[in-house]
Amino acid sequence: MAVAAAALVAGAAASLLGAPALGRGLWAAGMIPTLAILTVELVGRLVRREYGVDLIAGLAMAGALALGEHLAGVVIALMLAGGNLLEQHARHRATRELTALLARQPRHAHREVDGKLEEVPVDQVRPDDTLLVKAGEVLPVDGTLLDATASIDQSSLTGEALPVVFRQGAALRSGTVNAGAPFRLRATA
Questions:
Q1: Which SS3 state, helix, strand or coil, does residue 145 take?
Q2: CB of 142 within 8 A of CB of 188?
Q3: 3-state secondary structure of 52
Q4: Distances from the Cα of 155 to the Cαs of 104, 126, 139, 159, in angstroms?
Q5: C-alpha–C-alpha distance, residues 109 and 137, integer Å
Q6: Which pLDDT value is given to residue 90?
Q7: What is the 3-state secondary structure (H, E, C) of 91-138?
Q8: In a 3-state reduction of DSSP, which class is residue 141?
Q9: Angstrom distance (rounded) from CA 132 to CA 84
Q10: What is the pLDDT of residues 97-130, one digit of tens each?
Q11: How would you class 146 by CB atoms within 10 Å of its CB: exposed for 0-12, middle for 13-18, buried for 19 or more?
C-alpha cells in the first residue's frame, strides 16, 4: 500500500510540476509491484476455482497498464491494498474480540442442592438445576430467572450499553453479566 500511495503522490507532483511523462512512469512503477504480487496469488486461486474481486482488480490494472492509463491503475492498486489492509484489521479485531469473549467464559457455577450452595464445574450443570448468580458474575449457562427481577449487562453479546432489567420467568443468556443483586436461575441449557 505504501508503494502505491507514494507513487500516486510522487506521480501527481511530477505531473503538476510539468513532467507528465515522469508522473506516468511513477504511477506505472507503483502499480506494477501490486499487479505482480496479485498475479501470482490469482493463478493459485484460479487453479482452486476461487473467483473474487481481486480478479477484477487484476484485470483492471492490467488493462490500465496496457492502455497507458497509469493513474487509473495506481488508484486501483491503492484501493486493492487499502481493502486488504482493512480486511486484515477486521480479521485481527474479530479474533481479539472472540478470544476475549472465550476468556470470560465462566468455569464454575454456584448450584443449590437441598438449600445449600455448592461450587461445581460448569460442565456438570444440568437442565433444571437451580443456580445462584452473584453480583458481577458472568451467567454460566442459559436459564430462566426465578427471582422477581435481575439487572443484566448484555453488552458482550448485543452491544447494548445499559443493563437491562428482566422479570421473573425471563430467558437469560450465558455470557451476559449480572449487573445487580444476586439472583437465582433455573438452567435450561
A1: strand
A2: yes
A3: coil
A4: 13, 26, 13, 4
A5: 10
A6: 95
A7: HHHHHHHHHHHHHCCCCEEEEEECCEEEEEEHHHCCCCCEEEECCCCE
A8: coil
A9: 47
A10: 888 877 778 899 999 999 899 999 999 999 999 9
A11: middle
Cell triple for 61: 490494472
pTM for this model (two decimals): 0.57
* Residues 6 or more apart whose Cβ sits within 8 Å of residue 48: none
Number of other residues whose CB lies within 10 A of the CB of residue 80: 23
The x, y and z cell numbers of residue 85, run together, are 489492509
C-alpha dihedral over 62, 65, 70, 72, to 10 degrees? -30
Q: For the chain, how long is the longest CA-to-CA vector? A: 89
Cell readout for 1 is 500500500
Nearest-angstrom CA–CA distance, 55 and 130 = 56
Amino acid at 160: E
For cell 421473573, what's the residue? 168
**Residue found under cell 491494498:** 81
Question: What's the CA angle centered on 98, arms 95 and 103, to 5 degrees?
Answer: 120
C-alpha cell at 72: 487509473
Q: What are phi and psi of 66, to 5 degrees?
A: -65, -35
Average pLDDT estimate for 12-18: 89
- DSSP three-state, residue 150: strand
Give the integer Cα–Cα distance in Å for 3 and 29: 9
